[in-house]
Amino acid sequence: MSYEIHQDWEDTSTVVSTVLFISGVTTLLHISFGSRLPLIQGPSFVYLAPALAVINSAELQGLSGNNFKHIMKKLQGAIIIASAFQVLLGYSGLMSVISRLINPVVVAPTIAAVGLSFFSYGFPLVGDCLEIGVVQILLVIIFSLYLRKISVFGHRVFLIYTVPLGLGITWAAAFLLTETGAYSYKGCDPNIPASNIISDHCRKHVSRMKHCRVDTSHALKSSPWFRFPYPLQWGTPVFELKMALVMCVVSIIASVDSIGSYHASSLLVASRPPTRGVLSRGIGLEGLSSVLAGLWGTGTGSTTLTENVHTIAVTKMGSRRAVEIGAGVLILLSLIGKVGGFIASIPQVMVAALLCFMWAMLAALGLSNLRYSEAGSSRNIIIVGLSLFFSLSVPAYFQQYGISPNSNLSVPSYFQLYIVASHGPFHSKFGGLNYFLNTLLSLHMVIAFLVAIILDNTVPGSRQERGVYVWSETEAAGREPAITKDYELPFRVGRIFRWVKWVGI
To answer: Does the keyword Membrane apply (predicted)?
Structure first.
C-alpha cells in the first residue's frame, strides 16, 4: 500500500514536469510556425471532461491496484488519433471551410460552457477544508477586483499576479497551521488511508487531516532534483476507436476555442485579425503539438490557452520575444524535478479554489467574444441563451439517466457525471457506438457548440449582427506588407506555403 501511494506521488510529479516541458516546446513551435501570435500553448480544460470520462469508464474502474499507467496509455492513444485528425483539419484546408461557420455567436457559448461544466467539481472540493479554500477564493477576488488598480513600481502587481499571490499566501498560511499542530490529532496519522482507520476519534478528523494539511503528499520529497521528460514514458499507447472518436470531436471544440483566442488576441497586438489561411496553419500546428503531448503523456491535448487574452489585455504585453523567454523558462523548470514535485504537492483544496476562479474566467472570456457582434440583438440573445441552457440541461439528462437516487457508485459524486457511458440512454447492440453517443452528448461544450452553430448558421441575421464582418475582413492582409509581417513565417519557410494558399497568409 505504501509503495502504491509513493508511486502515485511520483507519477503526479512526473506528469506536472511533462506538462511544463511540452507547454514550453509547443509554445516555441506555435509562435514560430503556427499563427505567430504571442500565445502560450498548454493543456486545455476542453480536454479535461473527455479525459475524466475515459478515466472513470467502467472498464478502468474495475481494475485493481495502481492503474495510472494503464489509464495514461489509453489517454495517449485517444489523444494521438484526435491530434492527427486536427493536423488533417488544419493543413488540408478543411479548417478554412469550417471557419466560415464559426463566428462570435458560436464561440461565445461554446467556450463559456467549458468553464461552466465543472461547477460540480469546484466548490464541493473547496468545502473539504473551508478555512483554506474560501480564504484563497476571497484573496483572489480581492486582488483581482478591489486592488486591481494599485501599482507597485509602475506595475499592477495584484492584477497581473492574482493567482500566484493568492496561492502563495494561502499555502504559507496552511503550512503554518500544519506546523503549529492545528491539524494534528493525538494518535492519528494523516497518511493512513481512511478505509484503514479504526479509531472513531481519528475517523472524525480524517477529512481535515487529509485536506487541510500541506504535508500529506510526499511528492516534493520523492521527486528527484533532475528529470528529463521523454516520449512514451508511460509505455506504448493503447488505441481504442470509441475513445479516439470522442477526442476527435473534442479537438474540433478545441479548435473553436483557439480561433476565438486568435481573433481576440490579434486585435490587441496587431491591426488586423488573422486570415483563414493563418487560422488553418495555427490549428494544424496545434494538432502537431497535441501529437507531442500524446507521445510524451501529459494526459490532455495541447492548445492555445484562452486565458492568454486576459493576460495580454492586462499587461499590454504582446511581444513574441517575451513569450519565447517564458517558454524557455517552462522548459528549464520542467527539468528540475523538485518544481514538478512542489506543484504536485499543493493540496487538492487549494487547486479546487484556484480552478473556481480559472473556470469562472474561462466562462467570462468565452462570453466576451460577443463584443464582436451585436450583443443586444434579440437573435443573438436567444441563440446564446438556448446554447448555454441546453449545454447544462441536456448533459444532465444523459448523466442522470438510469441512475437510482440510492445507487452506491464507486466514484465521488463530482465524478459520477463522467461514467455516463455505462448507463446512458443509448443501448444498441454496438457497445462502441453506445459509448461514443452517451459520452459525447453528456459533454456540455459539445451540446453548446451543436446548438450554437446550427442556429447561428440557419437563423437569418446581418453580417454585422452576427459579428461576421469583424472576423472575415482579413483578405486584405495579404496585400499589406506591414500586416503580412505579423503573420509571415520565419526562415523563408513561408515560401513553401505560397504553393499551399489555404494555409498561407
So the answer is: yes
